Amino acid sequence: MNARKLKKFVKSPGTFFRDYLIKKYPVINNEQNIAEEDEQSVIYTEELNWQQESCLTYIDDIPVDIVYTWVDNQDIEWVAKKNKYLPNAETLVSSIDNARFENHNELYYSILSVRKYLPWIRNIFIITDEQTPNWLKESDNIKIIDHKEIIDSQYLPTFNSHVIEANLYKISDLSEYFIYFNDDVLVARPLSKYHFFRKNGLQSIFVTEKSLEKMQLKGIETPTLLASKNSNQVLKKHYGVTFDSPLVHTYIPLRKSIFKECYEKNINQINSFQKNKYRAKDDLNMATFLVPWWTYLCGKSVITPEVCYYFNIRSPHAESQYRRLLQSKVNKTSPHSMCLNDFKTENTDEYYAIKLQLFLKTYYC
Q: Is residue 20 part of a domain?
C-alpha cells in the first residue's frame, strides 16, 4: 500500500473501503458494461464530438421521425380479439404473458420525454390495433397508424411484436431516417440528433456486452433470443457472418431504404412467420437485430455508446434505480435513456405500479 492510500486508510477508513469496493466491484446500470463512475466521461466525450460535427455542412438538416408500437390492454374489444386466437404448439409461453401487454401509461411519459429532450423530431407515429390513447390531443406531428395500414390483411389481427416490427418501414410519409421506440423506453437527458445519425448519414448502433451464445448455454430461450438466432442465419446466408451481440434495450435508429431492402431480399422467410399470431420459434427479429446488423454490414452504421438504465419495474431493485435516476437528474448526470421493462417475477414488488407512476411524474413533470 503506497503512502497516499495508507494515509487515506488511517484518516478515513470508511471512504477507503468504499472506494476500494467501487473499483473492485463497480456499479453497472446499463448493458454496455459502463461503470457508473465512468458514465459521465463517456457522455461528455460524445457531446464533444457532437459539437465538432455540428460545424460540418455535409448534411445540414436530416429530418428524423419516431415510430412507436403500442397497445391498450384495458380495451375490452382488444382483449376479446386477443383471447379469440388461442396459442398453438409453436407459440412460446412467454409470448402470451399478460405483463407483455400491460399498460402503465408509459407511452404518455415516453412521448413527454421526447418532447422535452428531442425537440428536433419531425413526426411521431404510433402504431396501434384500432386504438387511440385517451389522453392524446390532436397534433400536427403525432399520427396514429393502424395495423391494417402497414400489415397485409391476411396476417391480421396479430399480437406478435415481431410481425408488427417487420412492417415499420411501410408507414406512409415516414422519413428516411427514423428511430424505433417501444413505449417502455424513455429519453433521460437532452440528446443531439447526432447521437442517432451522423451528418454523413451513418446511423448509430447500440451494442450490448451480452452474448447470445452464453444466454443460450444458461438455458435462456426467450422469443427475442430465438428470433435473433434466426436472423443470424439470414445474415450468414447473405454475408457469411453472424453476430453474438444483441442490441441495447433502448431506441433503435433505422434507415427506411435499408429496412426495405432487407425485407424484400428475405420476403419469403418474413411471410412465413407473419402468420404467427403470437411470437413463435420461427420468427425473425427485424427491427432490433436483423436490420441494424444488415445496415452495419452495408457500411452504413457505426457502433456508438449508449448509457441506458435497464431494469424490471416489478423487481424490488427498481426502487433503488428510481432513486438513482432522480438524483442523477438533480446532479445533471442523467444517462442517455432508460428502459422500464415489465415481466413477471417470483419476487414482484406489491406496489410496483404505484412506485412507477410516482417516479415518472417526479422525473418528467
A: no
Any domain includes 346: yes
* pLDDT at residue 64, rounded to an integer: 97
Output phi, psi for 340, to 5 deg: -95, 80
Set of cell numbers at residue 169: 418501414
Low-confidence ranges of the chain (pLDDT < 70): 1-25, 57-60, 88-102, 346
- Dihedrals φ, ψ of 195, to 5°? -70, -25
CATH code of the domain containing 251: 3.90.550.10
Nearest residue to 328 (alpha-carbon basis) of 285, 282, 363: 363
Euclidean distance between CA atoms 102 and 343, whole angstroms? 9
- In angstroms, the CA 340 to CA 220 distance is 21
Residue 59, pLDDT score: 59
d(CA 267, CA 272): 8
Host domain of residue 132: 27-364
Burial of residue 274, with CB atoms counted within 10 A of its CB: 0-12 exposed, 13-18 middle, 19 or more buried: buried
| Domain assignment present for 215 | yes
Alpha-carbon radius of gyration of the chain: 21
